[in-house]
Write a structure and sequence with these properties.
By secondary structure, the protein is of the alpha+beta class. It is built from four helices and twelve strands; from the N terminus they run αββββαββαββββαββ.
C-alpha cells in the first residue's frame, strides 16, 4: 500500500514538473510590439496626363491597440491608427496649405484618417481605412525583414471614398500647376501609400 502511495505521489510530482516546463516554453522567445515613434507614413499623388508623381508624408501618427506577440505580423495585426491631416508634409508649404484646406477641408469631417491593420500570413492583407465619412478595405502587400515591416497599397479617393468634390477642388486650385505639355490640367484620384514600421523586440 505504501509503495502504491509513493509511486502515485512520484507520478503526480513528475506530471506537475513536466506541465510547468511546457508552460514555461510558451513564454520563451522574443516578443514583438509596435513602437509608434518608428512608424513612417508616405504617400504619392499624381498630376498632369503624364502622371508625374508628387511625394509627401504625414508627420504625426497616433497608434492604439498595441500588443506583444511572437511575430512581427501578429504584433501589427489589429493595430489601430489615426493620422491628423494637418500633419501632411510635401516639402512645399503652399501645396500643403491647399491640401489641408481645399482637399481634406472639403471632405466630410475628415480631421484625421483612421484605420485598422488586418494582415494575413502570405504577404497580403488590408487596411480598413476611414476618410470622408466612408470606410473601405484597402488591399496591401507587406514584407518582413527582421524587425522591419514595409507595407504598400493604392487607394482611389473618388471610387473608394466618394471624394469627387475634394478632387475637383484641389484640381481647380492647382489648374495651371497640374498642366502638362498637352495643356491639359489633371489631378489623378489614385494615391499610392506606404508605411515602414520598426518593431520593438524583447
Amino acid at each position: 500500500m505504501k509503495k502504491i502511495i509513493v509511486l502515485t505521489m512520484a507520478l503526480a510530482i513528475s506530471m506537475v514538473t513536466v506541465s510547468c516546463k511546457k508552460e514555461a516554453k510558451k513564454v520563451e522567445g522574443p516578443q514583438f510590439s509596435v513602437e509608434p515613434k518608428t512608424v513612417t507614413i508616405k504617400w504619392t499623388g499624381y498630376k498632369t496626363t503624364s502622371k508625374i508623381p508628387v511625394n509627401g508624408e504625414f508627420k504625426t501618427l497616433e497608434v492604439s491597440n498595441i500588443k506583444e506577440a511572437p511575430t512581427a505580423v501578429e504584433a501589427l495585426n489589429g493595430t489601430k491608427f489615426s493620422i491628423p491631416v494637418s500633419s501632411i508634409f510635401s516639402g512645399d508649404a503652399d501645396r500643403d496649405s491647399k491640401l489641408k484646406q481645399l482637399f481634406f477641408g472639403v471632405m466630410d469631417a475628415t480631421v484625421s484618417i483612421t484605420g485598422t491593420l488586418n494582415l494575413g500570413e502570405n504577404g497580403a492583407g488590408n487596411i480598413n481605412l476611414s476618410m470622408n465619412g466612408v470606410s473601405k478595405e484597402i488591399p496591401v502587400t507587406y514584407t518582413v525583414e527582421g524587425q522591419m515591416v514595409e507595407l504598400n497599397g493604392t487607394l482611389d479617393v473618388v471610387n473608394d471614398f466618394s471624394a469627387q468634390a475634394a478632387l475637383e477642388s484641389i484640381n481647380t486650385a492647382c489648374l495651371e500647376l497640374h498642366k502638362g505639355p498637352d495643356g491639359v490640367s489633371k489631378t489623378w484620384s489614385e494615391v499610392a501609400i506606404s508605411a515602414s514600421v520598426y518593431l520593438k523586440k524583447g
